[in-house]
Write a structure and sequence with these properties.
30% helix; 263 residues; elongated; Aminopeptidase; alpha+beta; 8 helices; twelve-stranded mixed β-sheet
Length: 263
């Protein structure tokens, strides 16, 4: 049985998804920020005959994310029907094994598909700080514009605004570490969707003329160290072999592939 969930279901939902906090980072983050009953977030649950959850589906604006502990327990057709009744669909994303169960039943044509690795770092994994540069700074919210300017010179499709980044920092769900040269950022690393137990690392970048000098790695080490001190597990996406080598050296372990279907 599928029904829309309310705040009365919060404990059951968080317990159901709580065994995999890294995989459910976005689900936790959205529920912590907006609750289960808002215009921004809707959550549905599929229950068995004994009232236990088999799977859940979260909507954040037009983005839908499914979760089940085991893929065979996720009813792809039923969730496709739920999504189809919503007019706001822009993206279906999640662990590949779960999204693939829904895709055959989706009637809306996909405009773009993206598949990347989803990796996380155990809280107890060792972190060698001896190679990190000493000139890594932490960004203040009012300085957001200069990091956005850096990213726009590196990422061709960068869409985040300084106001959005500052708002996320003010809410405590994002932070940024960076290195400057000539009073301008040349390398940076940010977090987003920070929850009580995990955080997504994003925006890892370095200007071309400063590459291969350990700038991004130093920012990553600083970020990981800060998260580790707060018992937050670092997570990230990657699809580039060079990035994979950097992350593997920092003890990030691939969880599963993450699939994003844009509509």
């Amino acid at each position: 049985m599928i029904r829309q969930l309310t705040e009365k279901d919060r404990d059951q939902v968080m317990s159901f998804a709580g065994d995999r906090p890294a995989e459910n980072l976005f689900i936790f983050g959205d529920i912590e920020a907006y609750g289960l009953e808002s215009d921004v977030v809707t959550v549905w649950g599929d229950f068995d005959g004994q009232g236990a959850l088999r799977s859940i589906l979260l909507r954040y604006l037009g983005n839908f994310i499914p979760y089940a502990r085991e893929a065979e327990l996720l009813d792809g057709k039923a969730w496709a029907d739920v999504i189809g009744r919503c007019s706001a669909l822009t993206c279906l994303s999640g662990l590949q094994s779960l999204v693939k169960k829904i895709l055959p039943y989706m009637s809306t044509p996909v405009q773009k598909e993206q598949l990347c690795y989803y990796a996380a770092r155990d809280l107890g994994a060792p972190l060698d700080k001896s190679t990190a540069r000493k000139d890594v700074k932490m960004l203040f919210p009012e300085e957001a514009e200069k990091i956005i300017a850096l990213r726009q010179t590196i990422f061709s499709n960068h869409a985040e605004t300084a106001a959005t980044l500052q708002k996320s920092m003010d809410r405590g769900i994002s932070r940024t570490f960076y290195i400057e040269r000539n009073n301008e950022p040349v390398s940076s690393v940010s977090t987003t969707a920070e929850t009580a137990g995990a955080a997504m690392i994003v925006g890892v970048c370095t200007k071309k003329e400063y590459e291969h000098q350990g700038f991004a790695t130093s920012c990553l080490i600083k970020t990981i160290s800060a998260l580790q001190a707060e018992h937050k597990r670092p997570c990230l996406f990657y699809d580039h072999p060079a990035a994979a080598r950097i992350y593997e050296k920092l003890n990030f372990i691939p969880i599963e592939k993450w699939m994003m279907e844009r509509y």
